[in-house]
User: Fold these one by one.
Assistant:
Number 1:
Amino acid sequence: MPVMTQSSLAVSVDGVSWVVLNASPDIGVQLQRTPQLHPRSLRDTPIAAVVLTNGDIDHIAGLLTLREKTAFTLYTTSAGGEIVETNSVFNVLDPALVARQTVHLDQGFEPVSGLTVTPFAVPGKVALFLEDADALDLEAVGEQTVGLMLEAGGKRVAYVPGCAAIPDWLRKRLEGIDLLLFDGTVWENDDMPRSGTGQKTGARMGHVALNGAGGSLAGFADLPARKVLVHINNTNPVLQPDSPERAAVQTAGWEIAHDGMAITP
């Protein structure tokens, strides 16, 4: 099984200016492996913006790697922005170079010319380190977990790396898209307990399973868009090349994202 890095995507409409969706802890390795994102001169970066979908550690820790005196704009919802603003470690992002912009649900913005990004709420929970055990909603709908609708050149792509359920209104929201990049964290809700790697279920972590009546394979069976799984946990058997779970995913019309994967919708 090949080694896979974590959940970050880079998007461009011109191949020159890039928008990074979520900054994973290993983003430095990802940048090294991606020539399009290499500096073109001293203190340069092709990264014009970073957009966060939630405040999970595996989506924000990489911001600390992007602190090297290069300019970009950080886009977050108010919930995500509060995490960055109130944690002093993120002060290493020089405010003279890293502008912080608050985005709003269902309101599009242009992080680079020609690309419109619209955040929309999906079922999810707050980041693990912000949990209140006495008032924890695993399928809350608000600014704590969002999907992103990307639109450019007449194409529409939905990026949803974290999602706790697939209600009818979400399926309706995704009608007519060209590409879906969706949460593939777990195959079954109990992947981690069964494998002996942890006690948390997919639902407890805020992720819907792939398999089963309420899973994403069934939930999006009628969606005609190209469908790609992202944010796949290392316990998920779909990563095993010869597993029946991988075959089931492919039979259902899904692809499995991998390091270096390039997609032109």
Number 2:
Amino acid sequence: MNIGAANQSAGLKSPEVADKIVLYFVEHGVQILTAIVIMGVGLLIARWVGRVMHRWLRARAFDEPVSVLVVRITKLLLIVFVGIMALGQMGVQITPLIAGIGVAGVGASLAMQGVLGNLVAGLTIIFTKPFKIGEYIELLGVYGQVTEIELFSTTLLHTDNSHVVVPNRKIVGEILHNYGTVRQLDLSVGIAYGTDLTAALSTVASLLRQNGRVLKEPAPVIGVAALGESFITLSIKPWVNVDDFVLAQAEIYQAVVERFRDEHIEIPGPRQTVRLINQPS
């Protein structure tokens, strides 16, 4: 008897639920249709705003990954806003929904302070542009060429092809050394005191002009750096692109050694004078 009564009760409830659903659609059909139209128009507007913002960011010379990221965030915010409007049109109480989202947002922000800190710092980097993709930077004891700028982190590439991922909150507010897209080599070579300085400096300048990795502008800096005990130190400081930094250094050193040998310019090694005192005759 109890099983039969339960089945009969379930059979009664199912038509009641179906009737309520049908009645809701009948009573709110226009509102539902309006909400669907609002959502469709909102999606079209979000797509149009995304295209306009992408063109604007390109015109302001923002990097492509950064532009795409900003456009996606803007479109997502517009879609959420339109979605809330559509729910309100369908009869859903928006005020409790917004309040619930606000309470959830406060709780999430307390639980993810580090993540939100990286997010805010990432937006700061994107809009203030202290560095761009392809530039060489140094900060907090790490250095490398910028390969990615994301909302939460920035990735640097070392000359050994290893990557360093730096949280964005560690970048904002710190001392940043931005080399840009070119770097200056700091090379040195020793020559004997009896060498013709003018000829040696001219030889080095000729080698730099022949190297395709050395930039013409800014002009290389060449001169006497120090006077040692047994040799004169020449300073060689040409400018090269960031990608050519390591290769240019090796090529210039090799060219200097070979040309100095050909022109009989001595590169002396360290010397010491030893005096023996009170030796028997």
Number 3:
Amino acid sequence: MGARVSARFPTEEEINKLNKCIDNVRATIDSDKRDGKRRNCCVVTYGCQQNEADSEQIAGMAVEMGYNLTDFTDQADLIIVNTCAVREHAEKKVFSITGGYKHLKDANPELVIGICGCMVSQEKNAEKFKKSYPYVDFTFGTESLWKFPEILDVVINKKKRSFVLNSGDEVICERTPSSRKSTFTSWLSIMYGCNNFCTYCIVPYVRGRERSRKPEDILREAKQLVSDGYKEITLLGQNVNSYGKEYGVSFASLIKQIAELDGDFIIRFMSSHPKDMSDELIQVIADCPKIERHIHLPFQSGSTRVLKLMNRHYTREDYLALIHRIREKNPDISLSADVMVGFPGETEEDFEDTLNLIREVRFDMMFSFIYSPREGTPAAKEVQMSEKEKTDRYLRLLKVQEPIAEEMAQRFVGRTEKVLVEGRSKNNNEMFTGRTSGLKIVLFEGNDEMTGRFADIEITEAHAFALYGKVVRVY
């Protein structure tokens, strides 16, 4: 358990079969146009950035097979729900929303509905969809994403339901296209799976063991993204810091090579595991201006005792020493973290250790979670804390972190920050929004022509969750 595996790549025979399935589906779609229009596909995504990247590949394959893309399920002939299994709430939401699709199927019997991703990588969930949701036509786990055309061919042309579980055949298919939602920000997956087996986490069980893409394939894709005009490239992996051990290439070396590509763009990355954060990477971030001035470094608990129960492989002291080394090389770097409250066995003393670590590190941003038991993980078998006690601790943690975030934000007032303009704010349509190199949200007055471009913004006001400013120049 936890051993690294070498990635398997599709054989020529597998690729030929895949291409034939793509042709089969496209032929069916083309021969059955309704009112001269192509069929529509809607991809609904829950979960992390890796799920979003996976959904772009699903959408890319759908387009390759002849579908148009739509954001509206009631306009779709094919609905695919890409699921998350990290927390129970996400699973309940998927079951609920899938139940709501029954009336769509009743109105359009030709509608095809599929569920994929982490949630249906677990046999119990796939079986539930098979038995309790007869209008769901197919499911497939994370490792079968590249076989989506083959699965859809069975459903559409052979009129059979298909339920494909993960089997341990963990393939990296480089030919999979992507239909990216943005024209200026992009996900770039560099590895898949996880070897850490934190006792609270389901990810290794649903995404398999760590395997890295070849560095030359990643560099080729990064170069193409820059050539296509993308201004932000986010490198993705469950633990990017352990990238490339199969090839003798470190993550620090990889990100440096990407940063050396010609063009004006910013590189972001997630997620980092503290036990694998190298001094080499810390130095590369300091040396390369194209790499974001932000590190997301989950600590989960400030108690060494709890960290051991979590199987995190570092101590409180290790984490604090790492923060010191990061700030020594990058004094003004923005730091964010994940922290969990209510882990089984967490005492009041353990929780105080967490609060004290937050006070000592002074994070710019923090993502805090109440522990949610996940069936199949070791921690789920332990005695659980009451929901009331977990909630009380969660609220106490927010009261510590929020004023720190407010204070940390004040250092930006009076500065001019380079911001990638993302468009109009969802919360205030009169304002535009973007993010600094340090991942801080900035709001400012602007115009639609700025979207997708860099702008220098003079920061005039700062709060815990957003900065405010005025445009100096756009380029």
Number 4:
Amino acid sequence: MNFFQIIRKGTSKTVSKIRNTAIYDFAAEKLEPKPYAQQAKPLFLASKWFSNSYHFLSYVIAFFGLMLFAYPIESWFQRVAIGIIGTVLLFLIELAKSNTSHSVFSSIARKETVNKLFLSIFIVATLFSFFVSVYSAKQAVFYAATTDKISQNNDDLQNETDSLKNAFDARIATIQISLESSSATLKKYSTGWRANKAREDLEKSNQSLEKVLFEKEKSLANLSEKYEGTEAKTTKAGTETAIIAAVLFALFETLNVFAYWFYYYYLSNCLLEKDLVLVNTNNAISSIIDATRTFSVNTQSVPTNLQPTSQHNNPIGCNTNYQKNEPPKTIVTKIVGNGTNGTKNCNHCNNEYIYKVSRQKFCSDKCRIDNWKQVKGKTFKKGKKS
């Protein structure tokens, strides 16, 4: 027995065990079509909380960008003034964007004319918030990704430069001592072997000094080039990260506008769905009452709208007033014949017809289908077998 046969056998046993259990009820529950209000509720809540959270996030990132803008200014008074003015301005922008979005998108959901002033304020506030958030996110992320590394890089460069200079300066000091000694000998002895030896030492010391100075300049240039490459890599990586942050905040701003729109789109669709459920439920109740009365053997008059004038809750919670000053609606049912053939009134069009069997309710297939559409609120589709 191979692997697939084992799986198939185990599946067959499992199905046979749960065949008479609640799995069918569970399947029916999972496959039952859900109303729009229930299906889209998670997305509605997500859009609501995202919009509220992003207002705070957008304000914080814009404020941080404002502080970075004011950081190079040396005057503390100017920094504080920029901070206070920027804080108030950003708060007013976020408040205007939030309030005008409610007015604009609720009007769109109700299919009403949008207030032009509120629409203009919303567009200006949204564009301002978009550019400020994107720019601030880019600058803030670049600052966070590069400042510490560049500062550390500069410190390391300074430390290594000082260490290198100290090493070469010690060598240069030794050579200079030799030069001074040779020069002093030449001043004291202008001729003789001491003077000749001093001249040789002086020439060698000068050559050594030139060599050490050249090595020093070369080593310092290599060190500077090394750390410049490291700083360039850090700057490049920080720029790439900052661009990603800017794109992300641009996406957030777009999603925020979509969240505004979907919030009221969901609420308006829920109201439409509620009205549709009310109509379908009332039609279904009326059809059931009419179908029940149709089976009455004797001709009778049934008043359908003599109800108390007080309000009553229907099965889905809608209050309806019933008036009793209207003339009673009469449903007349006639049965003629031996119970197998006779005449009665159609449950849909109320026209008299000759029935073939006693349980027949409609005069034609068209009336039966139209009644089904009215009760179910759906479009009738014919199956493969009529």
